[in-house]
Amino acid sequence: MSNNFLNTPKRSRKPRNIGLTSLIDNGVPTRYFTDVVQSSPDLIDVVKFGWCTGIVTPDLEKKIQCLLDNHVEYYFGGTLFEKALSQNKLEDFYRFVKQYDCKIVEISDGTLTIPMAEKARHIADFASEFHVISEVGKKDIHEADNMPVSAWIEEILSDLAAGAEKVILESRESGMSGICDANGNLRAGLVDGITESKFRITDAIWEAPTKKLQTILISTLGPNVNLGNIAFGDVIALETLRLGVRSDTFHLFDETGEDYALAKTGRLKFTHPDMRKTQGFLAQRLHERQKS
Fold first, then answer.
1. Distance CA 102, CA 100 (A)
2. Phi and psi (nearest 5°) for 221?
3. Which residues constitute the domain of residue 264?
């Protein structure tokens, strides 16, 4: 940020616990992968090798070495865990992640139906040796539509209690399921319910593969919201959204760098992120936008 002469929100620095940017590698070419990571290592916190691409990527070792050289964490997507579980191959899954010296393991149930108590046991087992990130939300749009807010909150709290350090909130790489509807719009009531529940909002990683999702989450939860499923080509563009120097978030932050949208309504400043609650703020903002 040495060239930044503007008054912009204060961004957390690596290694950080808030303001995370998590990229998804869905099989991007190796040279493109390394170019992006080497060009913006301070803006990238972690890379997820999406789905089960880790078992078919020829240059996996080369990609991982690039991440290690640039102090970027990495892990394999939850689908690999689910597939291994469905085939009774968790021991093989364990050996695979150890082979690549992963420090992070994702435990999810986005495709496979796993009872909440069983998922919690898997989280606790892997948490004894790894940093566990769980994922909540269904990939199938019909299942997602029928998952009540109370079920989301119950599973989030169960995962955290079992030992998950972060909880990913599903939207898929398309941004059209989980926390979103089939048109890619954020489910305002669901997001409000999650942010009002009794856990630290910084424990959540919101999947936001589209600019529309990134904009509304930054606008509502502040520039240091944790965002995941970010495409490799969107690293710089996302940072400009966070800093309020792009048209979509241009008027959100005042010259002190605090979250203007929240400060204007008398809510807590973003300098206390673990204590912030939206209190239905997202739904209200969307309602006001529709009226205008």
1. 6
2. -105, 0
3. 21-291
